[in-house]
Amino acid sequence: MTQSVVTPTPGTEAPATIAGGGSRRRWVLLAVGLVAALALPWFVYPPVAMDIVAMALFAIALDILLGYTGLLSFGHAAFWGSSAYVTGLIATHYGVPFPVAVVGGALFAMLLALPVGYLSVRRSGIYFAMVTLAFGQMVYFIGYQWSDLTGGENGLQGVPRKFFGIELVETESFYFYYAALPILLLGMWGAWRIVHSPFGRVLVSIRDNTQRARALGYEVEKYKVIAFVLSAGLTGLAGGVFAINHGFVALTELHWTTSGEVVLMTVLGGIGTLWGGVLGAFLAVMLADYLASSGFDGIDLVTGSVFVLVVLLFRRGVWGTVRHQWLARQQRRTSSRRASASADPARRRP
Amino acid sequence: MKTKRIRAGAAAMTGVLLLGACGEGGPGGSGGDFTDGKLVLAVMNDQSGVYKDASGPNSVKAVKMAVADYKKKHGDKAVVDDIEVTSTDHQNKPDIANTKAQELYERGGADVILDVPTSSAALAVANQAKTHKKLFLDVSAATMELTGAQCNKYTFQWAYNTYMLANGTGTTVTGNGDKNWHIIYPDYQFGQDMTKSFTEAISKAGGTVQGTIPTPFPNDNFATFLTKAGSTNPDVIGTMQAGGDLINVVKQFNESGLKERGIDLAVGLMLITDIHSLGVDQFAGTMFTDAWYWNMDDESRAWADRFRDETGTRPTFEHAGNYSAALQYLEAVQEAGTDDADKVVAKLEGKKVNDVFLRNGEIRAKDHSVVHDAYLARVKKPSDVKEDWDYEEIVTTIPAAKAFPPAEASACSM
């Protein structure tokens, strides 16, 4: 019997590690990740560190669709940006603590994702990408033209950062980082839960063989819409924190280039690896930040070259390649152990 | 692999320590009261994209010229010896501008940020200036918001705004007999603001605007919009497009045959670099308002010669504006004897200035708009061009009081 009709894309070996891989290694990785997240603002300028973590959640949220459901959304800026605007507006007009505003923004993004997802998931592949791009641009132009509300071209300026009257968090970006980090980590944990739940397994099966998943009785469209809305919600969380971090919202957050940037980050880190997005975001944000004050005038040239190099040399992305090497080595080790184990008695035999 | 990571970590840590050490450097200036013992002028603009030629790296050089002139003028009496000029590329992205401005004020020791084109980026930097109580002298952004509703104590707008551009051209061209206008504009904030200001200026001067046509931005094909504008037989078509779009409009206007029908073209915002890139023959006869022109008199020309020795090219008004802003800032620091922002602002406010860029200039205290003479210019015919960059002929000087909106009209309250 043939394995599957659709050949799985290289680099998407997500389910393999869910089943295999020691839990001890996972705990070590988790600890390393947490320490890195906590230590980041000591080494990187805090607002930039916050950008990295927000972008990381954005990339992870996109990976739920791209890596685990097999849908390339090219309109995620709509959810990132609209949540940023809604967060900014709530914070400006109601003066609530910023986590409340961020949650409001994320809920709005989910609400917006419902009709967009419902209409988009009827198509797949390049058509899905184009439909989501079209919706993204529609939202962009609404933000553009509705300048009474959004500030149009000038952006939404002067978003306050309220946090239960704790002044250090409100004024110092270093402390704000630690106040906002839990929101983003919670989002990342949510993403991990989603892809490792039975629901996530169904998504993977839809990615690998839609027909078979449907034949098994799963309502494929419904699953896709739910994945889309969840992804948009997590994107919204990240976008909201991003808005509060900067104290203003620019129209570029809604622009399709933002959608492109996050796809780049996800591919850079590794599609279908979830945590690859963190590395991708780190690389992309640090590169942009470094080049901005380097005095070098070919910024796009550098980011473009890095992208081309990564795609050529690490087809699975940075994280994906490292994991692949690790797994390959382990497999070799176990198979050689097995081979020697079976060889030994053979040798003893006269 | 592991050792590499450790080494990278160690390197990063050393870097952070070094940076920290730099920030705490002891006082080294002579006399005055200066944080870190030095003055840092941070130029932030587009070093790599569409506005690179208009301002970009050459504005950094212009600011360095101002520092050299300040040192030369005051010599031993200068209150600060150690003056650093830094450069940041905001790539026209407001979020990068925002983070970088914050970083410059907090960690880069920046006493003032200069230039910042792109209105959204400039407004973001203005907000950071307000939060950190440090100076921001904007040169290249045109939005009225900077000196209007979103003004603040530490932000000044040095060179121009949409009112200046629209009022000069709209009033003068109408006064010269081109009463009937048709305006095409890019459909975003700048285009809308410009169209509003133009319409007001035209009707005040006794003209009429027969119609306004919004166009997508950016856009390549303006043929249909031009035909539509030409169908009402106006005396003049006003275009509010800028940069690459403007070049397309002008090219297609020249090809459309509207010129032969006696319809003029008036341009909202044009820089000398636009004329240079498309060729003077394409623009010949076009009227526009300029904040400054390098060949308008001997003083400007002498400075432009120095600028050419430094950069190999002629300055735009944005280059001259950056020079002027840096120079006046340094003078104010000299007077105040400190880099304390509040004291420097007090010295700048209300000051009357005449320098190579600001003629009959005044740094208005009410809204921090720097008003000065502006110029209505006409692009020369190719046969009249005597040397490279000799593209403009100044038709009239618009006195400062008329070039900028009155202070009472500003929505600013600090």
UniProtKB/TrEMBL annotation, chain A:
Main localization of the protein described in the UniProt heading: membrane
Domain of life: Bacteria
Claim: Kinase is one of the keywords in the record: no
Membrane topology designation: Multi-pass membrane protein
UniProt entry tagged with the keyword Cell membrane: yes
Organism (species): Plantactinospora alkalitolerans
Subcellular location: Cell membrane
TM region positions: 27-45, 52-74, 94-114, 126-146, 175-195, 225-244, 264-287, 299-318
Signal peptide: none
InterPro entries membership: ABC_transp_permease, LivM-like
Protein name as annotated: Branched-chain amino acid ABC transporter permease
Keywords: Cell membrane, Membrane, Transmembrane, Transmembrane helix
UniProtKB/TrEMBL annotation, chain B:
Record-linked PROSITE patterns: PROKAR_LIPOPROTEIN
Keywords in alphabetical order: Signal
One Pfam family hit: Peripla_BP_6
InterPro entries per UniProt: BCAA_transport (IPR051010), Leu-bd (IPR028081), Peripla_BP_I (IPR028082)
UniProt keyword annotation of Signal present: yes
Stored CDD domains: PBP1_SBP-like
Protein origin, superkingdom: Bacteria
Positions of the Leucine-binding protein domain: 41-380
Recorded family membership: Belongs to the leucine-binding protein family.
PANTHER family: LEUCINE-SPECIFIC-BINDING PROTEIN, PERIPLASMIC BINDING PROTEIN OF ABC TRANSPORTER FOR NATURAL AMINO ACIDS
Protein name: ABC transporter substrate-binding protein
